[in-house]
Design goal:
Blueprint lengths: L13 E5 L3 E6 L2 E7 L18 E5 L21 E2 L4 E4 L2 E4 L8 E14 L2 E12 L8 E13 L5 E10 L6 E3 L8 E4 L9 E5 L12 E2 L1 E7 L6 E8 L8 E5 L12 E4 L7 E3 L5 E11 L4 H12 L1
Antiparallel strand pairs: 1-2, 2-3, 3-4, 5-13, 6-7, 6-12, 8-9, 9-10, 10-11, 11-21, 12-20, 13-19, 14-16, 15-18, 16-17, 17-21, 18-19
Length: 311
């Protein structure tokens, strides 16, 4: 059974609202997702390289419980939901677009390409620039990324977010995105409320937080305690079957290393086991969908959502 109903069935529509910080998606009157266009300043005493734009935060459950976190003290370069490549080889040099304090590379918002509201659905397309800080001025722009974020109502009071990353390079020798346990796809740093005692992870292959790291998956559910009426909220993240290395390798922080409250991180990492060559003037796409919910999400529901997504 398909879990996706036509938008006409839903009373609530998704609309866009522009602010000084970014672009909000509203489900009815409730802001549920913000894409940040402004540089987020760092706390006093923190290295200024960590300041960044071009990420999703906050992302909230339908009842308004925030499920993302930015600039946690253990990793100031974590930004809600985002997708930077970690290790890349460019002209024989290693460039890191994620670990901002190393001052080798970074990813930021550049400009809005398009905004659209139609049929109760809202869509935003933005350009994000991946900058090689060690390159000559004419070669600093390593990767151009056109990111499409589309938000729509779903069944059971939930909502859906399509997150499509289209990347390309104009560098004549291309780029090698190096095999590494982090990088690419879609990364998610969860709310500081969640820890190993009040949240869970489940993958399409039946893996949990203790066993999921380094395994492949079509989807992953991350859910935990919240102040929603149901006492729990979460999100299901789906990987499209056209993605590189699908079913896609996961980076999931294991409990034994990250067991305290506020340490839930998951990422779809298509280059975990194999490097990816990005050739000049070609376009590469990675497609993800998130179902954001209050209450519970079963494995059967997740599988149905995934089938509808890849259909």
């Amino acid at each position: 059974m398909s879990m996706v109903l036509s938008v006409g069935v839903f009373a609530q529509k998704v609309t866009l609202r522009e602010t000084e910080k970014g672009i909000d998606f509203l489900l009815g009157d409730q802001p549920v997702l913000t894409y940040q266009t402004a540089i987020e300043p760092v706390p006093e005493g923190v290295k200024s390289d960590y300041a960044k734009s071009g990420f999703i935060h906050p992302l909230a459950s339908p009842s308004g419980h925030v499920l993302t976190r930015i600039q946690p003290k253990d990793h100031y370069h974590h930004y809600g939901i985002w997708g930077p490549w970690t290790r890349a080889t460019i002209d024989g040099r290693m460039v890191d677009f994620w670990n901002l304090a190393d001052h080798k590379g970074r990813v930021d918002f550049d400009h809005v390409i398009a905004k659209k509201e139609a049929g109760g659905v809202a869509e935003l397309t933005v350009r994000q620039n991946h900058i090689d800080l060690g390159a000559s001025e004419e070669n600093k722009l390593a990767i151009q990324e056109d990111l499409v974020i589309k938000v729509m109502p779903a069944d059971k009071g939930r909502y859906m977010v399509d997150y499509t990353s289209n990347i390309s390079t104009k560098l004549k020798d291309g780029i090698l995105l190096d095999a590494y346990r982090y990088g690419g796809g879609l990364g998610y740093r969860a709310t500081e409320v969640w820890g190993s005692d009040n949240s869970t992870v489940l993958t399409s292959e039946g893996k949990d937080r203790k066993t999921a790291d380094g395994t492949d998956a079509k989807w992953i559910i991350v859910k935990g305690e919240s102040k929603s009426p149901q006492g729990q909220s979460g999100l299901l993240i789906l990987s499209h079957n056209t993605n590189k290395a699908h079913p896609e390798p996961l980076r999931v922080w294991p409990e034994e290393n990250y067991n305290r409250q506020g340490n839930v991180f998951v990422e779809f990492t298509p280059i975990r086991h194999e490097s990816w060559e990005i050739l000049p003037n070609q376009r590469y796409s990675l497609k993800y969908r998130m179902i954001v919910f209050d209450g519970d999400m079963t494995a059967e529901e997740a599988e149905n959502y995934w089938r509808a997504f890849v259909k």
